[in-house]
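User
New here, explain this?
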Amino acid sequence: MVQKVALVTGAAAGIGAGTARRLAQDDVAVGVLDLDEARCADVVASIESTGGKAVALGADISDRGQVTAAVAKLRQTFGPVTILVNNAAVSGYAPFLEMTDEQWNTVIGINLTGAFIVSQVTLPDMVEAGWGRVINISSMGAQGGAPNIAHYAASKGGIISLTRALTHEFGPHGITVNTISPRFIAGTLMASASVAGGHQRAVEAEIQAGPIRRAGHPGDVAGMVAYLASDEAGFVTGQTLSVNGGRYIA
């Protein structure tokens, strides 16, 4: 059996860390990538402690040179990349009329352009293999919007559109491309920013807004990633799958 190799971005904590660990349970070798390679050590150690395979990688995903070097290290360690999880993202709050060019460009540059770069660097491996999975992490903020996150919502909406475009280009090569759109997931940057920004009341309202009245957990998203990365999901592509506790956008 050929070793499946995954690259998970933003994998030092939160959804990315949970996803890396979950994929390793399915005998996937995982590149655990984050801005600071040293922060990935705990995730790699936890995977290896249960017999899995993982390697820590460091890169700013908005920098093509750094991404290329990190992916080369992953290929050298485990082989060509056949599963990509575009999870790395930044967030923040700013009223639209006060939002600066720097704030806008930073969020778009990492959340959307970063996914473009990482996808472009890794997809040739999947084309060569005739099999691949690209799983992009968006957000309910892209589907429903919210005040003070125009840059974040736009970047995550772009992820959904990027998914649909890549579906058509790479489906003929045996590659599926899907989006997961989570609702408030504990331990993520967006959740932490919400609390730090004094939005605790809004956070509680968000948690109570769906039929399943709890915050989501990284494992909730990781389980969906594992399915989409599997052979069983070979006829699922171009979809935006909401992991949101049943909260629907009107």
Remarks:
- The longest strand covers residues 175-182.
